[in-house]
């Protein structure tokens, strides 16, 4: 069964790679990187179809003091083997074995290494 799951994900990735990505066209909501300085400077990300799906559902809590608790802390560094694979689907994907973090409240520092110029975190609620 694992071979079938992996095979279908590879086929999906190949199909995704074949079609040019246009962030303004409605499609399955995804997170995506900014790969050039021009993309970053244009701020076009905020006009993309996908932007509204990449918003936090819980407001960021205010940090007390320096924001770092006076105890040992947990840092999670997520390097997704090339970045933006199974984790790009903001509403979940088809791979039941995809890496996922379920207990965010236990993490003090989170680092996402995406292999791209800029990786935007989900925006905060106002």
From TrEMBL:
GO terms for molecular function: mannosyl-glycoprotein endo-beta-N-acetylglucosaminidase activity. It comes from the Eukaryota. Gene3D superfamilies: Glycosidases. Residues 84-123 form the Cytosolic endo-beta-N-acetylglucosaminidase TIM barrel domain. GO terms for cellular component: cytosol. InterPro entries: ENGase (IPR032979), TIM_ENGase (IPR005201). This is Cytosolic endo-beta-N-acetylglucosaminidase 1. It comes from Sesamum radiatum. The lineage of its organism: Eukaryota, Viridiplantae, Streptophyta, Embryophyta, Tracheophyta.
